[in-house]
Design brief:
The complex is a heterotrimer. Chain A is α/β, with parallel strands linked by helices. Helix content of chain A is 34%, strand content 23%. The chains are: A alpha/beta, B mainly alpha, C mainly alpha.
């Protein structure tokens, strides 16, 4: 008879090392029935590692994993799933060459035999209807042809489907990072409903508002250990940031007469989305920080890519008067060179300048990287280490260094702060402001309305077109949201 | 983000307007086949008859089987550069041992499949590129073929010869065989529940592994299937040619790769089509006859095969470009 | 060239290939009781030259990323050998012209390959495959299967020796050093390595991806052209099949030499080790007097064993 317990899972004294790096140090962590635990921390704090241990994809060097009162030996993903513990990671786990229904079947070994396709399709469609009413996803749609937001919806919905294995705990690692605010709201509301019915959730998010609004209990991690935990009602934004090791929110940005900037400095970029009909266009003057806002996936990235292409060849609807550099948000597919060192990754945009004569000089390259490591504070013992040895936030900083270190006068940013910790973000905002004051122009697409406060001027996108044009004086979250949902004629 | 009472975002249809393009992509192999048949029919109407089609498409069966074998390997993001010499090896064994010492012959052929399965395991466990391993096997099978049959000769077993020369009513045997092959493999790989897992391992192996499926088992199964169809291909070939030589399967590697690609498969990502592969193989086989009828100088016949490949792929690129998946 | 500290120094296959070459040579001369040891090395060096030249060509193409292979090399080499010999026309004064013609032939094939890949969006394996079919036909039509002899001066250069080392080998070593510098220390080389790892990131980082791709296929084609001319000189006659074995040999050299088949990582010194190893292996087998079948078997097993023992890239997190 297993002892009576209210814990779904408990980790006792878990430790994990990756070579010399200590990812988890003596961590005690537990989740009760029917509770939503919010997990926050700096990048490199150990959150993902801890969740991997919980989900069974990583074996801890030391410590016990106790599920429903019983210590488990040889804990693996398969065992975890049989015990009802599931995980939705940041990297998507769908097969792009399979349909939505087939992906559901991958998750449930029991769906075999005659009519399996229909059963799998009904299962996933039912869950999607329950979680995201109005989703518009067909079970026979090919995942590879769906935009990332829809894929995220399928992935999360799949995690909540039940056939044979029970459902006790779902770990959600940045589940809203690819969703627009409306869908994110639907997801979080569903999480509350499902928690009320007895299922537990662990919610990892860098959006502190989400954590504060939707968790019952919050756990803060730093440098591989739990530093504090308690009821969500006992925390606020500032206390969380301080607990994670960051500074409290600084004073509000001094008001500048940015309107004057709109007239005196030369125009650097003039661009129009392909489907724009009313003549509105995006204009960026030298030294401005221009924000691109609106629901995710509504044409912001497309325009940035157009502007990027417009710098090297003539494109209708994209006038660019200076060299551009682009900082990608999806660093795995758009940014990082995984076989190279940190120094090589930083220098690649500027290798022409790092030559002595015709050949690249490694001394110049390393000096360049060192200067930027100091400036942007990349945490690493050696710049010659492979880039993947850096935490996600520091990798993103390396990509920033690559772009800012180049001769580009215009910097395009494609939601580069996604999934990055608050400490890194604050450091980079300061850097962007400094660079803008020195004459660089920034075009910044962000899916977080908070970040728009850094911008001089914001263009709101809807269905691939610019729908609103807000000066910073008129800027407010309500106006942005309202414009995002405005119907396009 | 605070929840806001906002009007619902309009529904974005996912598959409704993609279907025509997907159909077009899937129909391309069939269209190319139809075009080749039409061209042949125009140049030589008598060729498009039961007898003519039988003659032209006969050698398409071993090619189709080899193409299916290659398709299994390509579906899991690998490439088999040795299928041609494997077919030669099987052919040599068939024309000698299978006829004279059937038990030994069967054992050796099963051993060949076992070797393929073993290769799959090795490639997975050691994480080595299949291009290199199958490159080595190219030499191994070639050497074995020469050892089994140093000089051209041998004779096909009677039952095999009879099977391959079976006269089906109304529809030529090769077409019937091709349909059977295509349908059977399609049913297993595309419609079957485990088939989805097999294909998924080509699209996102990590995800399949994390869901608890054994990637090792999948790799071994796919390679073993390639071996099985390689054996079938060799058997079919000898059934038609009745004798063998160590080089008999020489062009099959490149033909099989071309067939898979013509049929809509892709090298990476697990996108695959068994029916497309079979159609691709038949198209390539017919292209040979077409070139004969067009009285292309034998000097340029090889070149014309290349040209046909290029034309079909250009057409597919055009379709892809008008939306759908990025090339 | 920095040696990154990942893994054992000795765990790299390309180091082993030099060792393997040595072992195989020792086995061969043990069999002949030391007779012809020097000659074996000289001959091996000469033959390795062709593996290395095609290996460099294939290495740059393969490093561009998965799916990039130049399957048109054999047909290219065959045609170039015919072109070179026909232009040289047996006279020493036309040597330079013949070499230029071969270079030009290879160059055009490289451009044709690239246009197929770029304009028609055909995967490189198929594009170079189709091109090879067409080039083969062109070769047949042009050369009519005749074996044209090289001018005596040219043949002499290709077989000349300097202090026991074939002149061609010395030249190729210098060429290899240049290739290494091109790969690691020029913008072009860095671009190839970047594209091989992540073509989209390379484009977004400001690399002229298509221009680099074009240059690479053109380079491969040009090297094939030169190789064809040299082969015709060395073997005293042009032939359309003269390049057939160099398709697999070039890929084997590249892979055994430590270049990653998934692209983005290339190893130049390894090419020589792999080439010597393969050539000496065949020499050893010939010395032992084994039959053609066994020779093929052993070659195959060796290639597989080398790559399996070394293992592949550890999957990136």
């Amino acid at each position: 008879m297993p002892p009576v317990t209210t814990n779904i899972v408990r980790l006792d004294g878990v430790e994990k090392h990756f070579g010399a790096v200590r990812a988890l140090a003596q961590v005690d962590f537990s989740v009760d029935n029917g509770e939503c635990v919010g997990l926050v921390g700096h990048n490199g704090a150990g959150k993902s590692t801890l969740m991997h241990v919980l989900a069974g994809t990583l074996t801890p060097d030391r410590g016990q994993i106790i599920v429903r009162g019983e210590a488990r030996q040889g804990y693996t993903v398969v065992m975890a799933q049989k015990l009802g513990i599931r995980c939705v990671f940041q990297e998507l786990s769908l097969c792009p060459n399979l349909s939505v229904a087939e992906n559901a079947r991958v998750f449930h070994p029991g769906i075999t035999g005659w009519g399996w396709r229909r059963r799998a399709g009904n299962l996933i469609r039912g869950k999607l209807d329950e979680m995201f009413p109005g989703h518009g996803i067909a079970p026979d749609a090919l995942v590879g042809e769906m935009p990332i937001g829809k894929r995220q919806m399928v992935e999360v919905a799949r995690a909540f489907t039940v056939t044979k294995a029970p459902l006790h705990l779902v770990i959600l690692d940045e589940p809203t990072s690819s969703l627009d605010s409306h869908t994110a709201g639907q997801l979080l509301a569903y999480v509350r409903r499902v928690v009320a019915s007895g299922v537990s959730c662990i919610l990892i998010s860098h959006l502190l508002r989400e954590i504060l609004d939707y968790s019952d209990r919050i756990v803060v991690m730093r440098d591989g250990a739990v530093v504090t935990s308690g009821r969500a009602s006992g925390f606020n934004r500032d206390s969380l940031v301080i607990a994670m090791g960051g500074a409290a929110a600084g004073p509000a940005r001094p008001e500048e007469a940015a309107a004057s900037l709109r007239r005196t400095t030369p125009v650097r970029v003039r661009a129009r989305p392909a489907t724009q009909r009313d003549g509105r266009e995006l204009v960026a003057h030298e030294g401005e920080i221009i924000g691109l806002a609106g629901l995710a996936g509504h044409g912001q990235t497309e325009l940035l890519i157009r502007i990027f292409s417009g710098a090297s060849r003539r494109l209708p609807g994209a006038e660019v008067t200076a060299p551009v550099a682009l900082i990608a948000g999806d660093r795995q597919t758009d940014g990082v060179f995984p076989l190279w060192s940190i120094a090589e990754n930083i220098g690649i945009r500027s290798i022409a300048a790092l030559r002595k004569g015709l050949l690249i000089s490694s001394r110049l390259e390393e000096g360049f990287a060192e200067r930027w490591q100091k400036r942007i504070k990349i945490r690493t013992p050696d710049l010659r280490n492979n880039i993947l040895s850096l935490s996600g936030g520091n990798q993103q900083k390396a990509l920033f260094a690559r772009a800012l270190g180049s001769e580009a006068k215009i910097v395009l940013m494609d939601d580069p702060m996604r999934g990055v910790d608050i400490g890194t973000k604050l450091e980079v905002y300061d850097l962007i402001r400094a660079e803008a004051e020195a004459g660089r122009t920034f075009l910044w697409y962000t899916s977080e309305a908070d970040e728009l406060k850094n911008c001089d001027h914001v263009y709101v996108f809807r269905s691939g077109r610019i729908i609103a044009d807000l000066h910073r004086n008129e800027l407010s979250e309500e106006r942005v949201i309202q414009s995002s949902f405005q119907e396009v004629t | 983000m605070a929840s806001v009472a906002a009007p619902r975002a309009p529904r974005v249809t996912s598959s409704r307007f993609r279907v025509p393009r997907r159909f077009l992509r899937a129909a391309l192999p069939g269209l190319s086949l139809a075009l080749v048949i039409l061209a042949i029919g125009k140049l030589n109407p008598r060729a498009v008859s039961y007898f003519g089609l039988n003659l032209m498409l006969n050698l398409g069966i071993p090619v189709a089987l080899a193409t299916i074998a290659q398709m299994f390997v390509i579906t899991v993001n690998d490439l088999d550069l040795s299928i041609g010499t494997f077919v030669s090896f099987v052919g040599c064994v068939t024309a000698t041992w299978l006829r004279d010492a059937p038990l030994l012959g069967v054992a050796v052929l099963l051993g060949g499949v076992a070797v393929y399965a073993f290769l799959g395991a090795v490639i997975h466990l050691r994480n080595v590129p299949s291009i290199v391993v199958t490159l080595g096997m190219f030499f191994v099978w070639q050497g074995l073929a020469i050892l089994v049959l140093p000089k051209p000769g041998g004779k096909a077993p009677v039952w095999l010869h009879d099977l391959m020369n079976f006269r089906t009513p109304y529809v030529p045997f090769p077409i019937v065989a091709a349909i059977v092959i295509g349908v059977v493999v399609h049913a297993g790989l595309m419609r079957g529940s485990y088939g989805a897992i097999l294909r998924g391992s080509g699209g996102n192996p990590n995800a399949i592994g994390r869901a608890g499926w054994s990637l090792l088992k999948i790799k071994v199964i796919m390679f073993a299937l390639a071996g099985v169809f390689g054996v079938l291909s060799g058997l079919a070939l000898i059934g038609l040619t009745t004798s063998a030589d160590a080089n008999i399967g020489k062009g099959y590697t490149l033909l099989s790769i071309a067939g898979v690609i013509l049929g809509g498969g892709e090298f990476v990502g697990g996108h695959t089509s068994p029916i497309g592969a079979v159609i691709g193989a038949l198209t390539l086989t017919l292209a040979g006859s077409l070139l004969n009828f067009m009285r292309i100088s034998p000097d340029w016949q090889v070149g014309a095969q290349g040209a046909i490949l290029i034309i079909v792929l250009a057409a597919r690129a055009l379709i892809n470009q008008t939306g759908g998946r990025a090339p | 060239m920095k040696l990154r500290g990942n893994g054992n120094f000795l765990a790299r296959p390309w180091i082993w290939s030099y060792l393997g070459a040595l072992l195989v040579w020792l086995a061969a001369i043990a069999f002949t009781r030391g007779y012809g040891a020097g000659g074996m090395i000289t001959a091996a060096l000469a033959l390795a030259v062709f593996c290395v030249i095609t290996g460099v060509a294939q290495m740059f193409v393969i490093t561009l990323g998965p799916g990039n292979v130049d399957l048109s090399l054999p047909a290219n080499i065959g045609l170039a050998s015919a072109v070179a010999m026909k232009v040289m026309h047996g006279s020493d004064s036309m040597i330079a012209a013949g070499l230029l013609a071969a270079l030009g032939s290879g160059f055009s094939i490289g451009i044709a390959n690239y246009l197929l890949i770029r304009l028609l969006r055909i995967p490189p394996i198929i594009a170079t495959l189709s091109a090879s079919f067409i080039v083969q036909s062109a070769g047949i039509a042009y050369g009519r299967g005749l074996q044209i002899k090289p001018p005596p001066g040219f043949a002499a250069i290709t077989t000349a020796q300097l202090a026991g080392m074939p002149l061609m080998a010395i030249g190729t070593v210098i060429f290899t050093v240049g290739a290494g510098i091109l790969l690691h220390r020029t913008i072009y080389g860095r671009s190839v390595l970047a594209i091989g790892q992540n073509p989209r990131a390379a484009w977004l980082a400001g690399i002229a991806v298509e221009r680099v791709r074009c240059a690479t296929y053109v380079l491969s084609g040009a090297l094939g052209g030169i190789c064809g001319a040299l082969l015709a000189g060395y073997f005293r006659g042009s032939s359309l099949e003269i390049g057939d074995e160099y398709l697999l040999a070039s890929i084997a050299c590249v892979v055994i030499g430590g270049t990653s088949v998934s692209g983005g990582k290339a190893n130049v010194p390894g090419l020589w080790g792999a080439a010597l190893f393969l050539v000496l292996l065949l020499t050893m087998l010939n010395t032992f007097g084994v039959s053609a079948g066994i020779r093929l078997l052993v070659t195959g097993f060796v290639i597989i064993a080398v790559i399996v023992i070394a293992g592949g890239q550890k999957p990136l997190r």
